[in-house]
Amino acid sequence: MIILLVVLVTIPTFYRMLRVGIYSMQDFHFFRLFEFDKCIKDLQIPCRWSPDVGLSFGEPLFNFYGQLSYAFGEIFALFGFSLIASLKLVFIASLVLSAISMFYLAKHLWKSNFAGFLSAIIYLYAPYRAVDVWVRGALPESVSFVFYPLIILFFEKYLAKQKKTDLLLFGLSVSALVVNHNLSFVLFLPFLVIWLIFRLIAKKAWKLIPGLLLTAVLSAGLIAFYVLPVVAESKYITLESTIVGYFDFKGHFVGIRQLFLSNNWGYGGSVFGPADGLNLSIGFVQWAIVLLTTIILVIKKQLHKNKSFLILLLIFLVLVGLIHGKSVVFWQLIPQMAYIQFPWRFLGIIVFTLALASGAIMQTLGKKYRYFVLVLTLIVSLFVNQKYFQEDIWYTYTDADLTTGEALTMQTRASIGDYWPNFSGISVDPAPADTIFAKLISKKSNEVIYEVATTDEQISFPINYFPGWTAYSQGKKIETRPDSEGKIRINAVNGQVVLKFTNTKVRTIGNIISLISLVGFVSLLIKSNLKKEK
After folding, report:
1. If we measure between CA atoms, which residue out of 324, 261, 317, 262 comes closest to residue 294?
2. What is the sign of the dihedral through the CA atoms of 403, 404, 407 and 409?
3. In whole angstroms, what is the distance from residue 68 CA to residue 110 CA?
4. pLDDT value at position 527?
């Protein structure tokens, strides 16, 4: 019954999606789902090459970008939903499942259904959640909110009862977060490390460390198909373009007033200085509940006794510091942090921390006051923040409208420099492809066939060169290499040429390791459940 109430509370955050069409958003996740759908239908598994990105020159988009949220969308698509509907269903699932996962975590930690319900409301109705879904349209980051509570929940359950099933689910959740959105994992990792160390020390559970280390190894194996190519092949793409100019982190810090007091709402972007076109606040309800809890615990002289709440409070303060401009020196000490691009992305972890901490207030109140605080929080959250969960512009588009003509061309140009191969010195905003003496016969996500007729010694194709592209003519393998513009070049032949995107050694090794690890995880889960039944 309580879970049904949690689900009902989520409806105001997404009910406006339940109609034909799609809303305006700042990212192009429909197009990425469209490309992922091609991968699956062409049996390019795991998906790595996106054929239409970069004005249809192609880029290794999914070799580097998290795939799990698109895999969820593809499940809906395979069941007959349109790609637009599938995209919206993933957003809806991210809202509903994140509230449920937070409910169970807070309930477990604070030993109260009241705490679970309150934390779920705080987690769900934070302004940043509305920004992610309804303004930015940040699909992978939205899905990551489901995994933050699950990771801590399974660890806490393992800590309490030391069941192998919980340990394995903890490892699976961590792996899922990495494959869903590696940047979300990077943002969450400091919290995770601090929490694990704190709880192991508090419980003196040193004997659990070997199991955790083994699970970490298995989890690393699960994500090897994704992580190994990211590590080994990032040198082949223009990552530097993602941290300069507009994406320079130094221009996107957020002030204290903006974090705590701003209620401005907009559908614009993050800009240098305080005049951002979107809301980057923590949320009044979100921090007020934790402040009230802190005051009550101080008055009762119990703050030092509630160590879980205290560590959450300290993590929150540190994260606020990282978002503020005064922390620029720290950011410069770790150059890799530049790839976070926007310091305010830590708002996601702040929201998680405050939502979990807010449940502690139920331990300080009598039963009648718990009902009062819970109902008041729900009413205020709906009154103050529910209005943010709506679109700027609604388009009555169909899949066909977005996958043909000028709309498709615009999407192929979007984020063109993110994963552009760097096998030439030309701009990542190329001119249209030159005419070649070849006729396009067919094109899949991982295979393109041309009929070639030329007397030239060499011929280039309008496809970006990247390790893994192999050419065949009359069953014989032909060497491929980049031309002066970074396109695929081969020695000219007369007849049919088949260009295939295949795995490199590192991708093959990663695939094998992940497959073995997956078999190991499934076997251990089955064995653990069978032992439980006996």
Report:
1. 317
2. positive
3. 31
4. 84
How far apart are alpha carbons 254 and 252 in whole angstroms?
6
DSSP code at position 419: T
Predicted local distance difference test score (pLDDT) of residue 434: 52
Is the Cβ–Cβ distance between 51 and 32 less than 8 Å? Answer: no
pLDDT at 24: 95
What the block records as the tokens of 435 is: 């005419």
How distant, in Å, are the alpha carbons of 54, 293, 343, 411 from that of 238?
13, 47, 22, 19
- Spatial neighbors of 16 by CB under 8 A, at least 6 apart, are 23, 389, 390, 391
User: Cα separations (Å) of 415 from 52, 122, 411?
Assistant: 12, 33, 8
At 84 the pLDDT is 98
The pLDDT of residue 41 is: 95
Model confidence over 235-248: pLDDT tens digits? 999 887 778 888 88
Residue 404's φ and ψ, nearest 5 degrees, are -140, 160
Tokens of 237: 């793409």
Question: Would you list the DSSP string of 188-207?
Answer: HHHHHHHHHHHHHHHHT-GG
Q: 């070049």: which residue's tokens?
A: 489
Q: CA-CA distances (angstroms) from residue 451 to 437, 442, 448, 455?
A: 9, 10, 10, 13
Q: How far is CA 269 from the centre of its chain?
A: 19
Q: Which of 385, 347, 311, 331 is nearest to 132 (CA)?
A: 347
Pull the structure tokens for residue 472: 């065949």
Positions in the chain short of pLDDT 50 = none
Q: What residues contact residue 111 under an 8 Å CB cut-off, 6+ apart?
A: 363
Q: 3-state DSSP call for residue 476?
A: strand
Helix 307-323 and helix 284-299, axial crossing angle in degrees, nearest 10 = 140
